[in-house]
Design goal:
The protein has 441 residues and is α/β, with parallel strands linked by helices. It is built from 13 helices and nine strands.
């Protein structure tokens, strides 16, 4: 269905004597939508994890529809028919900065980094990217049309992203020299979505505050809308329960607005990851946004995945030679964990019906999992991992494709074209000459 018309929503609320606080819960109700032909909602999620992969345990050997997942991708087995694995897509953008810097800074922009004073590795120093990122390009395209405009346009989720702002920590850009900081505190994201600026110790139920207003809405809308409203409030109630369950004990002093202990606690990474993904699913169900990013740590990321029995930092392990079998095994397990998080997000989207539409949220969402490097110990920008799950852009899924060193700019073009945004170039025009990758058939 088309996006609910703002005036229609507000008139409905005023007619019931309700305040604006209940607005997020009626955003996705089809009966309040502006008139017009139904249009399928399309969504894009870009998920990032760092430091490259172990090629022998990551890439399928076969090409086409008959292929086998290797160990790193095995969590996607339940979604094999909805998965597209792209080998041979390369970041051909060069210029200032080391491979880690260019890897993340050019990943979604397809454009060179500006000269700067951030020194990395043995390469020349660099600054921010010189282009807009594809998530923001798509967001701008959708926000121009009232039928696809949403409350936030895009949401940027993070998991243990460092506090510092530099080229290694940012992948999304609203324009040249304009990086976006992801929100990696789930409490802060919850407050952004539902407008309750409370710290962890004082977190109060949004639903309890709106109980009477929601009851009025429920009694005034059609049965189909009641089901959507119930699904949304259920998601929010579960998020509230999860957030409250993870509140730390009183440390004897007031918490700041963004409590750093949750965000920066290495061992809380799995918990934070799922909270953020649950929040993303809720934001899609409510049609708060149709574009989201999910960034795990940063380029040169150094989490210690103790929950996997791994005490070394991920980046340190990624520098070990191929002959270090223990390190290669640990890196395989690390990437399998990230893939498991991707599978969790796919599962949550698959089990959530499309409000007012057909199928599930996953049927109308494309998740793209990627990385700044193809392989950590060589720092190569060739064979950048691009693994896609879902039906959002009508690509032909259930395949393993192998390309011959194609520029990743062409894949970024494919994402834009999947939304009907028929741009002829994205990022460096030198890498766009052959047009978008042929992924629809």
């Amino acid at each position: 269905m088309s996006l609910i018309h703002t005036n229609t929503r507000r008139e409905f609320l005023r007619g019931l004597g309700l305040g604006a606080a209940v607005l997020p819960f009626v955003t996705g109700l089809p009966s309040l939508a502006s008139p017009g032909a139904p249009r399928r909602k399309q969504r894009l999620v870009i998920m990032f994890s760092p430091d490259g992969v172990v090629p022998p345990t990551f890439w399928p050997t076969e090409e086409g529809e008959t292929f086998t997942f290797k160990e790193s991708l095995s969590p996607l087995e339940p979604f094999k028919k909805q998965t597209l694995v792209l080998h041979g897509v390369c970041d051909r953008v060069r210029g200032d900065g080391d491979s880690h810097m260019r890897g993340i800074g050019c990943l979604l922009t397809g454009a060179e980094l500006f000269p700067g004073n951030v020194q990395g590795g043995s390469d020349t120093p660099a600054g921010w990217s010189s282009g807009i990122s594809i998530d923001q390009e798509v967001k701008n395209f959708l926000q121009k049309d009232p039928a696809t405009r949403t409350r936030f346009g895009s949401l940027e989720f993070g998991v243990m992203v460092p506090d510092r702002a530099d080229t290694w920590t940012r992948m999304s850009y609203v324009g040249p020299n304009k990086p976006i900081a992801p929100i990696d505190n789930p409490y802060q994201m919850f407050n952004k979505l539902y407008g309750r600026a409370k710290d962890q110790q004082n977190l109060k139920s949004v639903l309890d505050d709106l109980k009477e207003d929601l009851a009025k809405v429920r009694s005034s809308v059609a049965p189909a809308d009641r089901r959507i409203l119930d699904e949304h409030t259920s998601l929010v109630r579960q998020m509230e329960a999860d957030l409250k369950a993870n509140v730390t004990k009183d440390p004897g002093h007031a918490f700041p607005e963004i409590e750093p202990g949750v965000r920066e606690d290495n061992d809380n990474m799995p918990k934070i990851s799922k909270l953020q993904m649950d929040m993303m699913v809720s934001s899609f169900a409510a049609d708060f946004t149709r574009v989201a990013t999910l960034q795990y740590t940063n380029s040169v990321g150094q989490p210690r995945m103790k929950w996997l029995g791994i005490n070394e930092g991920q980046h340190d392990l990624s520098h070990e030679p191929d002959t270090n079998k223990d390190a290669q095994d640990k890196l395989t397990r690390i990437n399998k964990w990230y893939c498991g998080e991707l599978a969790y997000l796919a599962k949550r989207l698959a089990e959530t019906p499309e409000p007012g539409g057909v199928g599930s949220l996953l049927d109308n969402t494309l998740i793209v999992w990627t990385n700044e490097l193809g392989k950590g110990n060589s720092h190569t920008l060739d064979n950048i991992p691009f693994v896609m799950v879902g039906g959002g852009l009508d690509f032909k899924m259930g395949r393993s494709l192998k390309f011959q060193r194609v520029p990743h700019n062409r894949l970024l073009l494919s994402m834009a074209h999947g939304f009907g945004h028929r741009i002829e170039r994205f990022g460096n025009a030198d890498f766009c000459g052959q047009g978008p990758l042929p992924l629809t058939g």
